[in-house]
Design goal:
Layout lengths: L46 H13 L8 H9 L14 H15 L3 E3 L15 E3 L8 H12 L7 H9 L15 H11 L6 E5 L2 E5 L5 H15 L19 H14 L3 H4 L5 H18 L18 H7 L3 H18 L7 H13 L7
Antiparallel strand pairs: 1-2, 3-4
Helix pairs in contact: 2-3, 2-6, 2-8, 3-4, 3-5, 3-8, 3-13, 7-8, 8-10, 8-12, 10-12
């Protein structure tokens, strides 16, 4: 009947596709052009991911989610009230030093590589910008731009900490002061989901406070500091460091403990320790600061400065003993593994200079 009506059924080849044809058959695969499925030739990506990967490979590891300044601020904040102690006069100055340390750890700035620089005190050596790419952190980028603009007339480590803190009599240098650092850091932690913003009434005025929203983040910071300062063996426990693969994680642990000590917020991390454990931990931190506030690291025993200044606290707090000395030596070994070029690592040299500046705060004398 189909033949009479002039219609015929079209035959469909259901067998294997012949390989002799030069054009591929549409039945062999389905094209997904413009999508991220298999076979597609267009995949969406964020260019910032590539920049982040490139930065991590250049820095020698993964950048931690919180900066050193944010961790120090987090240690000082009261969990429920969301504000710092009104009697703490050291944290503002210490946070400016942390900014320089963070830039040095990220390999953005370093001590100017001058063969004659060793004739000057560590804190008076000049700072130079080695990489002016943005970091993604507002305060770090603002500081980096100011330092880059001052490259024609480089300044010392001590001068930069003073200028960023506003501790200068030079009217022409007032513009270098970083303003509202604590509030800006707190808002950054709010954006990262660590803090939240509330308003509290203080008798005559209202003030924005930032209680801790994610206690797990702060507990992790506290646990690392306590593990570092209470270790009893030469092998530093892994719980004292960031996750494996983090950039400069041993030196970051040292800088966190020393900066918190200088900022007078280390007491908050020892809330769960007994009296004797607290005294031993303070003495351990004092030993660590003495070793890392000198260049090369660990050369404080040959220097007369620092030991006399910290003699009073050592007597008051007791001695950490041989176990503490072994732990400090073990920490020195871990940090030296991370250094690039050994004692020629000018970035670590800058870190040592900032720690020496912080060690001279009134609370440590």
């Amino acid at each position: 009947m189909t033949e009479a009506s002039g219609l015929s059924r079209r035959r469909v080849n259901t067998g294997p596709v012949s390989t002799s044809s030069s054009e591929p058959s549409s039945s062999t695969f389905t094209s997904h052009a413009g999508s991220a499925f298999a076979g597609g030739n267009k995949v969406a990506f964020d260019p910032r991911d590539l920049e982040r990967d490139e930065e991590e490979s250049r820095a020698g590891g993964k950048i931690p989610p919180l900066t050193l300044m944010e961790e120090v601020l987090l240690l000082g904040l009261k969990d429920r009230q969301g504000y710092l102690s009104f009697w703490n006069d050291n944290i503002s100055y210490a946070l400016r030093g942390c900014i320089l340390i963070e830039l040095a750890l990220r390999r953005r700035i370093a001590v100017h590589k001058d063969p004659n620089r060793r004739r000057f005190p560590l804190t008076e050596r000049l700072v130079e910008v080695v990489d002016d790419r943005q970091t993604g952190e507002t305060i770090l980028d603002e500081t980096l731009r100011m330092m880059k603009a001052q490259e024609s007339e480089r300044m010392s480590i001590n001068s930069w900490v003073d200028l960023l803190s506003g501790e200068t009599w030079n009217v022409l240098k007032i513009g270098y002061q970083l303003k509202q650092v604590r509030e800006r850091l707190a808002k950054g932690l709010v954006d990262k989901g660590v803090l939240r913003t509330e308003k509290r009434n203080f008798l005559l005025f209202d003030m924005a406070t930032h209680p801790v929203a994610d206690l797990r983040v702060k507990d992790a910071v506290v646990s690392r500091v306590v593990a570092l300062l209470t270790a009893s063996t030469s092998a530093v426990p892994s719980t004292a460091f960031e996750a494996p693969g983090t950039q400069m994680r041993a030196l970051r642990a040292v800088c966190l403990a020393c900066s918190a000590y200088a900022a007078s917020v280390l007491d908050n991390a020892f809330a769960k320790l007994g009296y004797e454990e607290r005294e031993i931990a303070f003495a351990r931190c004092d030993d660590i600061l003495a070793e890392f506030a000198a260049w090369p690291f660990g050369s404080s025993s040959s220097s007369s400065t620092g030991s006399k200044k910290r003699e009073g606290p050592r007597i008051a707090m007791g001695s950490s003993g041989s176990d503490g000395r072994e732990a400090v030596l073990g920490l020195l070994g871990e940090v030296r593994k991370e250094m690039v070029g050994g004692d020629e690592d000018t970035g670590c040299e800058l870190v040592a200079g900032v720690l020496e500046v912080l060690s001279k705060l009134d609370s440590l004398l």
